Amino acid sequence: MKILQYALLVCTFMAGAVFSNAQSLQTATETYMKTGYAVGDEATDFRLKNIDGKMVSLGDYKSAKGFIVIFTCNHCPYSKKYEERIVALDKKYKKLGYPVIAINPNDATVQPEDGFEEMKTRAKEKGFTFPYLVDEGQKIYPQYGATKTPHVFLLNKENGKNIVKYIGAIDNNYDDPNDVSEHYVQDAVNSLLKGQPVKTTKTVAIGCTIKVKK
User: Fold this and answer.
1) Are β-strands 151-158 and 132-134 bridged in parallel, bridged antiparallel, or unpaired?
2) Residue 100: which of 145, 61, 52, 126 has the closest Cα?
3) In angstroms, rounded to a whole number, what is the distance separating the alpha carbons of residues 132 and 154?
4) Where are the domains of the chain?
5) What is residue 129's predicted lDDT score, i.e. its pLDDT?
6) Which residues contact 201 (CB under 8 A, 6 or more apart)?
7) How far is the CA of 50 from the CAs of 40, 202, 211, in angstroms?
């Protein structure tokens, strides 16, 4: 009887050890697999080339209260649909402390329409009022966790840090701006301006996949 009890005790201990190791492995795997920022994370600064050839970083905007960072591009039909709305966001909120910072994450060898010269042309044609940066080497979009164009990351300056407050789509109708019922980015910025918490902090970004060099 004592031998049986001892055997059961050993089995229980071993099972507990296996379960503990499994939990540790799961935690490590989840940490490894996590890519990009979550709401509440601090977004690190970047330094990317603008279409005017100058390097731009968030730190350049000393008086900004935050940033509307939008990963977008030239060729994507979804991005094209949102261009006028992105310009409108910049015109409205830049003077209130939340400028738009647009970043093209695509590799031009995969999608030539998103090349640097093409970015210049597109920005001039559409009257972009904001920096249009190129993510050379495709190092920044993975840090943010952008997966689509367009994909928005709303940042708020807090104690010298850029804290992520909203991630996702610009609004809930990419096809028709006159039929939008949920203005996600606009509502989020308005809440921050009022010192209130953002109600909708994350939505699904609808757009084209980011074109990555093989």
Assistant:
1) unpaired
2) 61
3) 16
4) 1-34, 42-209
5) 98
6) 39, 165, 166, 167, 188
7) 28, 28, 19
Integer Cα distance of 179 and 198 in angstroms: 23
31-39: list long-range contacts, CB under 8 Å, 24+ apart: 35/142, 35/145, 36/142, 36/143, 36/144, 36/145, 36/146, 37/143, 37/144, 37/145, 37/153, 37/164, 37/167, 38/164, 38/167, 39/164, 39/165, 39/166, 39/167, 39/201, 39/202
pTM value is: 0.84
**Percentage of the chain modeled with pLDDT above 90:** 83
DSSP track, 84-104: HHHHHHHHHHTTTT--EEEEE
Specify whether the CB–CB gap between 59 and 45 falls below 8 A: yes
Could you tell me if 195 and 74 are in contact, meaning their C-beta atoms sit under 8 angstroms apart? no
pLDDT digits (tens, 9 = 90+) for 46-66: 999 999 999 999 999 999 999
To 5 degrees, how large is the angle CA 115–CA 145–CA 209?
50
Cα R_g (the chain), whole angstroms = 22
Query: How many helices (H) and strands (E) in the chain?
Result: 5, 10
Q: Which residues contact 34 (CB under 8 A, 6 or more apart)?
A: none
CATH code of the region 42-209: 3.40.30.10
- Residues 167 and 94: their CA atoms lie apart, in Å, by 19
H-helix segments, 34-58 = none
Specify the pairing of strand 148-149 against strand 208-209: antiparallel
Ramachandran sector of residue 168 (left: φ over 0; alpha: ψ -120 to 50; beta: rest) = left
